[in-house]
Backbone:
């Protein structure tokens, strides 16, 4: 009995991994067999080409990257920029990555790779703005810390003066 339970459990777990793996490869899109299961039963007498056409449509949607042209200089520039965008603690976005993205935008404005780079441009702009704002806040914090130290010294001096006045009375 235990062997049967272990076998059923292992079979279910392994089949789950395969379906999850297939789901991941389709980009989260439901499989053609699950979306077309009910119509396939009712249309069993139809020809096979009619059943294959609905199955091809989800694949095209899930693999939208295949529509991009490959092998061009714009693709190489885009991929080089992605590889060059390695963050460091001092600089969240490398200068070389910025330059490659600017060059892609300048040299290939109508390229689909430039369209893919648009969110990167926005992220780089936001990162730069946040880094600049962070520097401003650090400067303000330093200034306020100095002011607090100065005021604490003044308070200590006033306390000492007050104690001396009380002793003299």
Residues:
């Amino acid at each position: 009995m235990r062997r049967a339970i272990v076998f059923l459990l292992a079979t279910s777990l392994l089949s789950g991994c395969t379906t999850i793996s297939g789901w991941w490869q389709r980009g989260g899109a439901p499989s053609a067999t699950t979306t077309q299961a009910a119509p396939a039963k009712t249309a069993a007498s139809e020809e096979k080409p009619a059943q294959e056409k609905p199955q091809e449509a989800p694949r095209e949607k899930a693999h939208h990257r295949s529509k991009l042209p490959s092998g061009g200089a714009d693709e190489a520039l885009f991929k080089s920029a992605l590889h060059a965008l390695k963050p460091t603690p001092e600089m969240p976005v490398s200068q070389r990555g910025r330059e490659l993205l600017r060059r892609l935008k300048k040299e290939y404005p109508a390229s689909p790779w430039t369209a893919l780079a648009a969110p990167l441009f926005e992220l780089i702009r936001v990162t730069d703005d946040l880094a600049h704002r962070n520097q401003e806040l650090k400067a303000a914090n330093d200034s306020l810390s100095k002011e607090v130290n100065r005021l604490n010294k003044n308070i200590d001096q006033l306390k000492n003066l007050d104690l001396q006045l009380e002793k003299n009375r």
